[in-house]
Amino acid sequence: MLLEIKDIHVHYGKIAAIKGISLQVEDGEIVSLIGANGAGKTTTLKTISGLRPLTSGQVLFNGADISKMPGHKRVIAGIGQSPEGRGVFPGMTVQENLLMGAYTRKDALDADLAEVYELFPRLAERKNQFGGTMSGGEQQMIAIGRALMTKPKVLLLDEPSMGLAPMLIAQIFEIIKEINKRGTTVLLVEQNAQQALKLSHRAYVLETGRVVKSAPGPELLDDPQVRAAYLGGH
Amino acid sequence: MKGNGVTGNANPLRRVGALFDGARDWWEHAKVWQRYLVYLGAIVFALILPAPVIGEFMSPGSDWTTVLIYPIGTYILLAIGLNVVVGQAGLLDLGFVAFFAIGGYSVAYFGTQYGWNYWATVVFGILLAAVSGVILGAPTLRLRGDYLAIVTLGFGEIVRITANNTDEIGGARGITNVPHPTDMPSIGVEFGVLPAPYYYLMLIAIVLVIIFSVRLQKSRVGRAWAAIREDEDAAELMGVPTFKFKLLAFAIGAMIGGLAGGIYAGKAVFIEPNTFPFILSATILAAVVLGGSGNLPGVMLGAFVIAWLPERFREVDWLKDALGKDPAEYRILLFGGVLVLMMALRPEGLLPSRRRKAELHEGTGGMGTMGAEVAGPDTDVSTTEAAK
């Protein structure tokens, strides 16, 4: 088991955003969390990456309890995240953004940088452009590329399709598949349930801070309840 | 035709703005020897700056060298310090004057009560300021934006009021007979009544602090600060220990503030709590923002303008005629008007860095223009989820 969270509770002030979620991610999988606004998907990711403290429960990574580990150390441990809203550094160029991903690394970066540029040729064309002046899709590429530069064992992606044109969404999902194929485990949060489920080995359905269903991705695609609630009921 | 009048006025200022931008672009592509030539020119310029010929225009009414030390030099030093906190790490600090006060009081108190050597008191003041920066930062740097600003504002006032009510450090009467810097007969420098030696002392301090600040900005620390300023969560996700680096920014900013306080006290002979009012924090912040937060030459230019303009307004003859009174009574109003005008015409500051411009134009916290257009109600999960 690469990543496991056990019965976590997270509060914003007094309001419970997560009321006891448990999930597992095996090495090499693509796992997705789907659900409506406010279901707790983003909060779950932030709790795993250490941006949100948890009230109770446990986050285990490679078998070790990392619940109390600060976020910046979890990066070194092997958890990379492309945050909600992309979080591109607007005043840094594309290349500087990618190099920020390697902030904690002391080994050679050339090969990894070349790999990111190979995955996203668009970024290679615009190395020296400011992150803030890139389009939404390009910023998403920066955010994913930057997370890859941390050399993660598990890559957390928060709504990579948000705000993108359908063509670009398809492209981004292709790339996620490719990243996984090259050996990185992926935990994906998506509102675009159709696309996410097609891609995922397994998926969890979240509703108001709880897991209401979990099954292999293709199975959920055929689930009548899930179809009605998240896939437009066809 | 009010609108036309406004654009008419704007044109010359726009042209000045374009000149600034052109200078910055040239600088970015300048060769190393060209840069060193500019550094050399700047130092020579600073050395001859107190010359009476320049002073005649810059400060006809009061002694130019004295004006150069306070307010101009002091403001520049303070602005470079505050720029580390505000411009580099992106933390809004409204109580910066507290560190200036701590530096000043260290020199005054340990010099008069314990007879310490002046330089020792300055170094001790810098350390004390750094420690208080950490003490202020440790519990408060978990706050963000406006909340942090309010806490720092409170800290500035706490320091001033504490000084006001502590008899050991003179209470409201302050401390008199603050010792001057130790004379250095070996190189023929004597710190007495003449302002020139203090000016050169201030100049050395400013040059050292600039070198220190530029080195920091180009280091790993500077990159971490830039990341924190642009998106704190993303910085943490890149493995930047954000809390530690914010604390470091506070400590380093505080040290520079403490240094400024030490030099100021060495010249001033007398300090009291009211030497360190809140308005001074606000003024220094105005200097940083006006000049171009994050860009060192801009920040220094801003500090110079903010320090010099009100002094200069006192001496403008046609203003005297127009107002029928001493313009000194109106100078703060005029100064405010100039600030409003400048921020309306150049909101990024007089001399912003290109990068800072990109950050400000982005203005959506990491969301590109396209992302911002289509972002749904889910954009801020913390509020939507809190609303549930």
From TrEMBL, chain A:
Domain ABC transporter: 3-233
GO biological processes: L-amino acid transport
InterPro entries: AAA+_ATPase, ABC_branched_ATPase_LivF/BraG, ABC_transporter-like_ATP-bd, ABC_transporter-like_CS, BCAA_Transport_ATP-bd_LivF, P-loop_NTPase
Record's keyword terms, sorted: Amino-acid transport, ATP-binding, Nucleotide-binding, Transport
Record-annotated membrane-spanning stretches: none
Gene3D superfamilies (UniProt xref): P-loop containing nucleotide triphosphate hydrolases
SMART domains according to UniProt: AAA
Keyword Transmembrane helix: no
MF-aspect GO terms: ATP binding; ATP hydrolysis activity; branched-chain amino acid transmembrane transporter activity
Superkingdom per UniProt: Bacteria
Family, per entry: Belongs to the ABC transporter superfamily.
Name of the protein in its database record: Branched-chain amino acid transport system ATP-binding protein
TrEMBL record, chain B:
Topology of this chain in the membrane: Multi-pass membrane protein
GO cellular component: plasma membrane
Transmembrane segments: 36-55, 67-86, 91-110, 116-138, 145-163, 198-216, 247-266, 278-309
Intracellular or extracellular location(s): Cell membrane
UniProt keywords, alphabetically: Cell membrane, Membrane, Transmembrane, Transmembrane helix
Pfam families recorded: BPD_transp_2
Entries under InterPro entries matching the protein: ABC_transp_permease, LivM-like
Main location group: membrane
Protein name: Amino acid/amide ABC transporter membrane protein 2 (HAAT family)
Organism: Saccharothrix carnea
Location of region: Disordered: 361-388
GO-annotated molecular function: branched-chain amino acid transmembrane transporter activity
